[in-house]
């Protein structure tokens, strides 16, 4: 890659991280702000509407190129482009209309009655499916190998059904019509790979390697973040009944999988998640107003992940540089460096090189 000097080494380190193998220190996402751009920046006109902000692929490519020209991708960081139509675009492929806002994309509820709605099916003529795939393909052509194009945030299982039905009504469906919900989840599981596979095919390298959006993860095969945010409204018994089988099927069909555990209300499901043998790693998002992933209050979660033999993804963002280093010191001392991926906010060049030097000396 044009903007990533040690990409071959980085790919080997990612493969080691997924397998909890030794690389001499934790995996590190470290991006430094250059003192001056390495190339002249392209002029970029800002989006005029929220919809344009998401769908103008030429502008998005210019923006990532300018970011690459003003930043250095050190350690295991790498440049990549996200092209999401919100968090959970499969809902739009199946009938929901996206509602574009400046800060996110919402999905209009489209199911008032499951029987009336009819079968969940792959529609090759669906406008949003074709639009999204074309965005990814066009970005891949424009990138010319200078940076990666990420597989978008398709999302899966109950989260898609909740978006289409509305979370309030879907809560009742779980209680009133559990067998129907299980059938619907199995159908979503089948449809997921009808959407994922063409996206993966569009962005994969010659050996099948791919990068997944937002979470800065690359794997030498089919790679994805998986989730079930709806689990915040479920009991452990319900999670094992409705979500665990679906996630098991999905992880078994992927080569590399990272579970996104969204907020303290989902922590009660960690035991069930660790029972999924095919799941490779876990990322915990503490949620608004909570201390970041490096805080010791979350260590009981990480202990269960380690006991299950899975890898850890931890973003350190609270405070400043010295706070990030202290958090990293504690994490490495407690959990070791193998299978540990530490991610940091963008920082100054001097800080970045000092951090790498510390990792090499003290975090082995």
- Determine the mean pLDDT: 97
What count of domains describes the coordinates? 1
Rg, nearest Å: 20 Å
Largest sheet: 8 strands, mixed
CATH architecture: Alpha-Beta Barrel
Kindly report how far apart the N and C termini lie. Answer: 28 Å
Secondary-structure blueprint of this entry?
Elements (H helix, E strand, L loop, with lengths): L6 H12 L8 E7 L16 H6 L1 H14 E5 L4 E2 L8 H4 L4 E3 L4 E3 L6 H4 L9 H17 L4 E2 L7 H9 L1 H10 L1 H26 L6 E3 L4 E3 L3 E5 L8 H18 L2 E7 L7 H5 L6 E5 L13 H9 L3 E5 L5 H15 L4 E4 L3 E2 H14 L2
Q: Please, could you describe this protein's structure?
A:
The chain is α/β, with parallel strands linked by helices. It has one domain (7-362): TIM Barrel, CATH 3.20.20. It is built from 14 helices and 14 strands. Strands 1, 2, 9, 10, 11, 12, 13 and 14 form an 8-stranded mixed beta sheet that branches. The protein has a two-stranded parallel ribbon with strand order 3-6. A two-stranded antiparallel sheet has the order 4-5. It is globular. It starts with 6 loop residues before the first helix and ends with a helix. The mean pLDDT is 97.
Keywords:
alpha/beta; TIM Barrel; 45% helix; 15% strand
Summarize the structure.
The protein is an alpha/beta fold and 364 residues long. It has 14 helices and 14 strands.
């Amino acid at each position: 890659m044009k903007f990533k000097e040690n990409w071959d080494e980085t790919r080997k380190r990612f493969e080691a991280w997924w397998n909890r193998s030794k690389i001499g220190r934790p995996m590190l996402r470290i991006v430094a702000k250059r003192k001056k751009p390495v190339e002249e920046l392209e002029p970029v006109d800002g989006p005029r509407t929220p919809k344009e902000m998401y769908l103008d692929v030429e502008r998005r490519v210019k923006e990532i190129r300018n970011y690459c020209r003003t930043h250095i991708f050190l350690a295991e960081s790498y440049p990549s482009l996200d092209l999401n139509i919100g968090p959970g675009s499969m809902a739009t492929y199946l009938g929901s209309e996206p509602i574009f806002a400046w800060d996110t994309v919402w999905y209009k509820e489209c199911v008032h009655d499951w029987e009336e709605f009819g079968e969940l099916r792959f529609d090759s003529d669906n406008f949003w499916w074709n639009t999204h795939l074309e965005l990814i393909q066009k970005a891949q052509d424009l990138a010319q190998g200078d940076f990666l194009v990420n597989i978008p945030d398709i999302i899966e299982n109950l989260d898609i059904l909740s978006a289409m039905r509305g979370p309030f009504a879907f809560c009742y469906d779980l209680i009133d019509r559990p067998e129907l919900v299980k059938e619907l989840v199995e159908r979503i599981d089948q449809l997921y790979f009808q959407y994922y596979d063409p996206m993966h095919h569009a962005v994969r390298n010659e050996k099948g390697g791919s990068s997944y959006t937002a979470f800065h993860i690359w794997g030498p095969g089919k790679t994805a973040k998986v989730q079930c945010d709806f689990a915040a409204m479920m009991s452990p018994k319900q999670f094992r009944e409705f979500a665990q089988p679906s996630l098991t099927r999905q992880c078994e069909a992927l080569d590399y999988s990272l579970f996104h555990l969204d907020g303290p209300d989902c922590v009660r499901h960690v035991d069930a998640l660790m029972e999924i043998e095919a799941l490779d790693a876990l990322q915990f998002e503490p949620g608004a107003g909570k201390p970041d992933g490096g805080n010791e209050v979350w260590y009981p979660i990480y202990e269960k992940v380690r006991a299950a033999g899975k890898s850890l993804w931890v973003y350190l963002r609270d405070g400043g540089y010295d706070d990030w280093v202290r958090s990293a010191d504690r994490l490495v001392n407690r959990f070791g460096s193998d299978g540990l991926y530490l991610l940091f906010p963008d920082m100054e060049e001097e800080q970045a090189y000092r951090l790498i030097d510390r990792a090499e000396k003290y975090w082995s």
